């Protein structure tokens, strides 16, 4: 069930050479916007990206990201991350999880040659994300993702850039992962990470078919049912916050290329469904 946690960490890190279906055109008959599902980490073999991304980039006047990517590498953001995602002097991981979960975490890390002591000052939200990142690296996913790639290209081209939420807002969403059920969150995160090698091929197949319903069913439906509060704060609430901003952009003659995590696309509360409900025509590219 918590496979969702690993996926939200990078919003579907998959091999994408065949996945042109991750870009959509949104139009009201006069104005146009492109939506691109971002993959925050890729393998070197995933480049060059699918042609649909390049076409949307070239047709756009500006880029829109989830957040200010430049600020994510600032010392101030690093300080705030440590503030929210680590214990500092206020305790350790063992204060929030059971002996059973600590034993499972230690065994999982020992298999990867990593001492558990490195994790003791991390809060469960950060531990879960770090476990996912370690596993993605083990699977060869080590390169910059779609959003960072187009940020770099856009900077070189002098293309205007906007974002939908501040880094601080995004950080607070991340910090809420597992809030109030830290032990269950971390135990499921461990199980989730160990299922990733089996999970990715099925996700790849959904992408080859452009099957967003299949993606939702596989990665999100059960999680939404069992952990509605976390699902709401990480996806639905943010989608709802973004939709008014996207509608404002659709009222201008400029064409935007909006790059957000792929898990924000599917489902009845997803960006695609919400924009369709607003009367826009959406076409998969």
UniProtKB/TrEMBL annotation:
CDD domains hit by this protein: Tiki (cd14789)
Q: Which organism is it from?
A: Alteromonas halophila
Specify the superkingdom: Bacteria
Q: Does the keyword Protein transport apply?
A: no
According to the record, the signal peptide region is 1-20
The family database entries (PANTHER family) matched by this protein are listed as: CYTOPLASMIC PROTEIN, CYTOPLASMIC PROTEIN-RELATED
Keywords for the protein's UniProt record, in alphabetical order: Signal
- A Pfam family it matches: TraB_PrgY_gumN
> Lineage, please?
Bacteria, Pseudomonadati, Pseudomonadota, Gammaproteobacteria, Alteromonadales
Instruction: Tell me what this protein is called.
Output: Conjugative transfer protein GumN
User: Do you know which InterPro entries this protein is assigned to?
Assistant: TraB/PrgY/GumN_fam, YbaP-like
């Amino acid at each position: 069930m918590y496979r969702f946690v690993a996926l939200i960490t990078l919003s579907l890190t998959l091999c994408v050479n065949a996945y042109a279906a991750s870009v959509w055109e949104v139009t009201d008959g006069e104005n146009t916007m492109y939506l691109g599902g971002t993959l925050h980490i890729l393998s070197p073999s995933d480049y060059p990206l699918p042609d649909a991304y390049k076409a949307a980039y070239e047709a756009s006047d500006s880029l829109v990201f989830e957040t200010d990517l430049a600020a994510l590498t600032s010392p101030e953001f690093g300080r705030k991350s440590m503030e929210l995602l680590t214990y500092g002097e206020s305790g350790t991981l063992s204060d929030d999880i059971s002996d059973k979960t600590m034993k499972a975490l230690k065994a999982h890390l020992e298999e990867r040659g990593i001492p558990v002591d490195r994790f003791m000052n991390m809060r469960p939200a950060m531990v879960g994300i770090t476990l996912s990142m370690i596993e993605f690296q083990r699977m060869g996913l080590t390169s910059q993702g779609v959003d960072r790639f187009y940020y770099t290209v856009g900077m070189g081209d002098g293309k205007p850039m906007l974002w939908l939420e501040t880094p601080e807002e995004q950080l607070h969403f991340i910090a809420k992962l597992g809030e109030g059920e830290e032990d269950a969150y971390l135990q499921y995160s461990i199980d989730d990470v160990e299922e990733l090698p089996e999970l990715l091929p099925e996700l790849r197949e959904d992408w080859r078919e452009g099957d967003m319903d299949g993606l939702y069913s596989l990665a999100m439906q059960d999680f939404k049912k069992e952990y509605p509060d976390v699902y709401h704060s990480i996806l639905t609430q943010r989608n709802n916050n973004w939709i008014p901003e996207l509608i404002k952009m659709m009222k201008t003659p400029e064409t935007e290329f909006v790059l957000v995590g792929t898990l924000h696309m599917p489902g009845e509360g997803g960006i695609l469904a919400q924009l369709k409900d607003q009367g826009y025509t959406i076409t998969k590219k």
